[in-house]
From TrEMBL:
Signal peptide: none annotated. It is a multi-pass membrane protein. The gene is dgkA. It is found in: Cell membrane. The chain crosses the membrane at residues 37-56, 63-83, 103-124. This is Undecaprenol kinase. It comes from Hymenobacter cavernae. Keywords: ATP-binding, Cell membrane, Kinase, Lipid biosynthesis, Lipid metabolism, Membrane, Nucleotide-binding, Phospholipid biosynthesis, Phospholipid metabolism, Transferase, Transmembrane, Transmembrane helix. Its main location: membrane. InterPro entries: DAGK (IPR000829), DAGK_sf (IPR036945), UDPK (IPR033717). GO terms for molecular function: kinase activity. Belongs to the bacterial diacylglycerol kinase family.
Length: 133
């Protein structure tokens, strides 16, 4: 039997659908930012790091490392928030697997944060030390 193409119920143009997807993504970031203290901390840290980056006139390579480090922490924290929400939805009661999912997701944030700290220490450490000496 010849497969029949599935009709696409979404009649909006590709551009409109892409724009809507971006809207959903930004709403997700905003929702997470409003509810998660850790993300608010990351937002403050990001503003400080970018400010320091301009102050110390980082090189292009250093900006790239900072961008990857900051982006990785935000990504891990957003995924962690999503996993927490989904876990609370499907397993509001105590379950070892629910605990495991949350702990592993939190572990991802910790790994990203430690890596970002190492990048930050290498890039900003010597410059801050030179300032105070
Ligand atoms: N439904 C559950 N079943 C089993 N253990 C759970 C469950 N919910 C939470 N836990 C355990 O409690 C820990 C804390 O969970 P909680 O939902 O309070 O996240 P959290 O640490 O407050 O996260 P955050 O502070 O990033 O919002 C989890 O990492 C997990 O070990």
């Amino acid at each position: 039997m010849t497969p029949v193409a599935k009709p696409n119920p979404d009649k909006r143009s590709l551009l409109r659908r892409r724009a809507a997807s971006f809207g959903h993504a930004f709403r997700g970031i905003w929702l997470a930012l409003r509810s998660e203290l850790h993300l608010q901390f990351h937002a403050a840290a990001t503003v400080i790091v970018v400010g320091l980056g301009f102050y110390f006139e980082l090189t292009a390579t250093e900006w790239m490392l900072v961008a990857v480090a900051v982006g990785t922490v935000w990504t891990a924290e957003l995924v962690n928030t999503a996993i927490e929400a989904l876990t609370d939805l499907v397993s509001p009661e105590y379950h070892p697997l629910a605990g495991k999912a949350k702990d592993v997701a939190a572990g991802a944030v910790l790994v990203a944060a430690v890596a970002a700290l190492v990048v930050g220490l290498f890039i900003f450490g010597p410059r801050v030390l030179a300032l105070v000496h």
